[in-house]
Amino acid sequence: MHKASMYEAGHYSKIGKAAALNLANWKARALHPFSMRLKQLARIISEILIGAAICIGLQASSFQSADAQNGREPSGDAPIVIETIPPDPRGGRAYELVYLVKAPIQSYWKFKTDFDNDFLVENKYIREHKFISRNGNSIITENKYANGPDKYFRWRTTVYPESNRLEFVLLNPEDCGQRFHFGHIRLEAVEQGTRVVQTAYFDFFGAAFWAGFPWRGGMRYFLTYTAQWEQQIVLRLKERYENESSE
Questions:
Q1: What is the pLDDT of residue 240?
Q2: Whole-angstrom distance, CA of residue 114 vs CA of residue 240
């Protein structure tokens, strides 16, 4: 083949490659908006599905915790009242929880001051419970919670039998990610049994969010569950503590 022919063949080959490359680039540019639209559509559909799942989940939790939200025991009686109250001067949040226990105050006091027990871990929020010591009217216990850090919360509870009152304070708040946590529980004898009034003051990161969260996992759900759990377990153990009261 002559040099001129070889040159022409190579020249046309380069032209062909360039044309093919230009064609590919043109197709890519032409399809790019379409592919982008597909990606955007897929993202929108994904966001809609995720949002729908969240809404359904919130609705389900609302339905499941209906008793917790309306402040009633599953049986429909014994209203549970939860109110926010002015916090400690240092900040944080505070609440007052009021509920009725269908047991005489003498036997309920025995239940409430039975610190060396094995029934507290039946509460789904309490993983471990330990009785540490007692010095007169001051009792030290430790709890691990399912919804808290993997630390032992060390509580000191002081009991006042003459006034049916208990005062509690968290002794190691910094270990548990809190600034402070303390309060008191007052018992009152009523015709139906015992009226319980629990007041607490606390502060930790996210306390305001937890206190105001209206669904499962928030303060109101937690307190309502705890009160309902206690109402039920006291009925189960009432005979044990009534027998102790009569001895």
A1: 87
A2: 12
- Residue 6 tokens, joined: 């070889």
The pTM of this model reads 0.70
CA–CA dist 214, 183 (Å, integer): 23
CB 25 within 8 A of CB 17: no
pLDDT single digits (tens) 146-202: 988 999 999 999 999 999 999 999 999 999 999 999 999 999 999 999 999 999 999
Q: How far is CA 107 from CA 110, 124, 243, in A?
A: 5, 24, 8
Sign of CA dihedral 156, 223, 96, 106: negative
Residue 78 three-state SS: coil
Tokens of 229: 């759990």
> Are the C-beta atoms of residues 173 and 180 closer than 8 Å to each other?
yes
List beta partners, residue 131: 141
Q: What is the DSSP letter of 91?
A: B
Tell me the C-alpha distance between 34 and 28, whole Å. 10
Task: Please give the backbone phi and psi of residue 241, each rounded to the nearest 5 degrees, phi first.
Answer: -80, -25
pLDDT given for residue 23 in this prediction = 54
Q: Which residues pair with 153 in a beta bridge?
A: 143
Sign of CA dihedral 169, 86, 193, 126: negative
Measured in whole angstroms, the distance separating CA 46 from the mean position of its chain's CA atoms is 27
Q: Band of the pLDDT at 61, cuts 50, 70, 90? A: very low
The answer on pLDDT for 238 being more than 90 is: no
